[in-house]
Amino acid sequence: MSSSLEINKTIFRRFIDEALNAGKLSVIDELFSLDFVEHQLLPIPDSGREIVKNLIVWLHTAFPDLPYEIVNIIAEDDKVMVHTAFRSSQKGEFMGISPTGKQIASEVIDIVRISRGKII
């Protein structure tokens, strides 16, 4: 596999491990471009890097024991597809639902473009 594809996969792995799982918001500024665009509708204000930071805070507030596990990661050209799974207990409000303490499980597929070492 091309080294640039491995580098792109490493960039997204860092996002999962350091930002999403560990809650290190400062890594967002390092990994995401200034003009990052989120293409899904989220109940979170802001745009660009700030929407990613707010998403992480929002998820960690509702699910403080949130561990995302990478199930599959595939890179081709400038894109990385990541299939993640998590299981967590709802300890905070989530989408208008008061904390239940119940465990949920979910799987997510993200497809991102990476240019010049930044998620765009």
Q: Please, could you describe this protein's structure?
A:
The structure is a single chain. The chain is α+β, with helices and mostly antiparallel strands and 120 residues long. It has a single domain (3-119), classed as Nuclear Transport Factor 2, Chain: A. Helix content is 33%, strand content 28%. The protein is built from 3 helices and 4 strands, in the order αααββββ. The chain has a 4-stranded antiparallel beta sheet, covered by helices on one side. Strand 3 (103-115) and strand 4 (118-119) form a beta hairpin. The longest helix is centred in the N-terminal third of the chain and has 19 residues, at 3-21. The chain is globular. The mean pLDDT is 92.
Task: Please tag this protein with its features.
Nuclear Transport Factor 2, Chain: A, alpha+beta, 120 residues
- What CATH first level would be assigned? Alpha Beta
Cα gyration radius (Å)? 15 Å
Average pLDDT rating: 92
Q: Structural class, from helix and strand content? A: alpha+beta
Query: How do the strands line up in the largest sheet?
Result: 1-2-3-4
CATH topology call:
Nuclear Transport Factor 2, Chain: A
User: N-to-C SSE series?
Assistant: HHHEEEE
What share of residues is helical?
Answer: 25-40%
Extract low-pLDDT stretches.
none
Percent of residues in β-strands: 25-35%
Largest beta-sheet details: 4 strands, antiparallel
Strand segment tally: 4
Q: How many structural units, i.e. domains?
A: 1
Shape: globular
Q: Give the end-to-end Cα distance, rounded to a whole number of Å.
A: 22 Å
In DSSP terms (H or I, runs of 4 or more residues), the helix count works out at 3
